[in-house]
Amino acid sequence: MRSLDDLDVDGKRVLVRVDFNVPLDGERITDDARIRAALPTIAALRRRGARLLLAAHLGRPKDRERKFSLAPVAKHLGELLETDVPLAPDLDHVPDGDVVMLENIRYEPGETKNDPELAQRLADLADAYVNDAFGAAHRAHASTEGVAHLLPSAAGLLMQREVETLTAGILEDPARPLVAIVGGAKVTDKIGVLEAFLDRADAILIGGAMAFPFLSVQGHSIGDSLCADEDLGPARELLERGADKLRLPVDLVLGRAFDADTERRAVDGVDVPDGWMGLDVGPRTAEAYGEEIAGAGTVFWNGPMGAFELEPFAAGTRAVAEAVAAAPGITVVGGGDSAAALAQFGLADRVTHLSTGGGASLELIEGKTLPGVEVLS
């Protein structure tokens, strides 16, 4: 993969694809981690004499909806850089400047279709291209893949670190034992990741609603717990292949409904009565998982242990997050809800690598080709 060292940018305008898809409360950015993650690449290019034109998306606008404008992002970036960052309203009105941001690239109808005409319009605005948006690297869009064919191109520092950490540190040569923690809602959403870890990991710790298809095919009652019929077959096959590696909950915290104020009870076991649903792993599970994590040479975590967004059911995810933060080995967190959990518990700065791309990191682990990475190789 080509790096910044492979580009001559002195005196040139560089189109930089960044991942500024940040959460907003109105026009207030509630978490600027993705913006800050791009600062090293922005600083490196400016030191080398480049003028920057930043492209990013925000949400999934159907038209030029104001709520998806990048204006608050441009303002915040300017504050971080201590310089003015003008926002170009569209591709036909791009001001000159040291750092300029394009309005939401998904306002352009050809972006998600990887339209060649849009890619050419983007290329016409710059002399070189840098992709630092790992979180969008699994999409073949005009600003992530198409334009890279038309300009001298390279990976930014964040993109380079993400790919190298996940490929070398997890897939190719992890420090052993390699422990994968996989949670979330559906087995089918992460079956490729689970299959990949059956081949590579020494232990796979399962949590969240994902555990219930496994428990169901083992013959346990799961009550009203989330469990899709299409998850049962894959869960059975995974158990047959990797029963020695898969770790499942041994106790649970139940609720009557998915609500912070619902009636709650803990069970020392994994059978869920009718009228109840499993919403968190219990303390014995959290302790057992913590021991596995503490003994790992490398930990990869993606997916919560339960409904951590509801405080009464956050203890299992908090315990795992604390174990990952305290682990002596290499710790890699694959974005998404796991990253949100680390931030919620104030632990985001205590892991080796916190990925900015949940979907991209999982597809890379699965062995899929990421279009935004392949085009830079």
Describe the structure.
The protein has helices at 33-47, 71-81, 116-123, 142-146, 157-172, 191-200, 211-217, 229-242, 283-294, 315-326, 336-344, 358-366, 371-374, and strands at 13-17, 24-25, 28-29, 51-55, 87-88, 99-102, 128-131, 153-155, 178-182, 203-206, 246-247, 252-255, 264-267, 277-281, 298-302, 330-333, 353-354. The chain starts with 12 loop residues before the first strand and ends with a helix. β2 (24-25) and β3 form a beta hairpin. The protein contains 13 helices and 17 strands. The strands form 4 sheets. It has a 6-stranded parallel β-sheet. The mean pLDDT is 95. It has 377 residues and is of the alpha/beta class. The longest helix is centred in the middle third of the chain and has 16 residues, at 157-172. The protein is elongated and about 65 Å long.
SSE layout and pairing:
Layout lengths: L12 E5 L6 E2 L2 E2 L3 H15 L3 E5 L15 H11 L5 E2 L10 E4 L13 H8 L4 E4 L10 H5 L6 E3 L1 H16 L5 E5 L8 H10 L2 E4 L4 H7 L11 H14 L3 E2 L4 E4 L8 E4 L9 E5 L1 H12 L3 E5 L12 H12 L3 E4 L2 H9 L8 E2 L3 H9 L4 H4 L3
Parallel strand pairs: 1-4, 1-7, 4-6, 5-6, 7-8, 9-10, 9-15, 10-11, 15-16, 16-17
Antiparallel strand pairs: 2-3, 12-13, 12-14
Radius of gyration: 22 Å
**Secondary-structure element order, as H and E?**
EEEHEHEEHEHEHEHEHHEEEEHEHEHEHH
Quantity of strands, as a count? 17
**Global morphology:** elongated
Q: Which percent range describes the beta-strand content?
A: 15-25%
Q: Given the helix and strand composition, which structural class is it?
A: alpha/beta
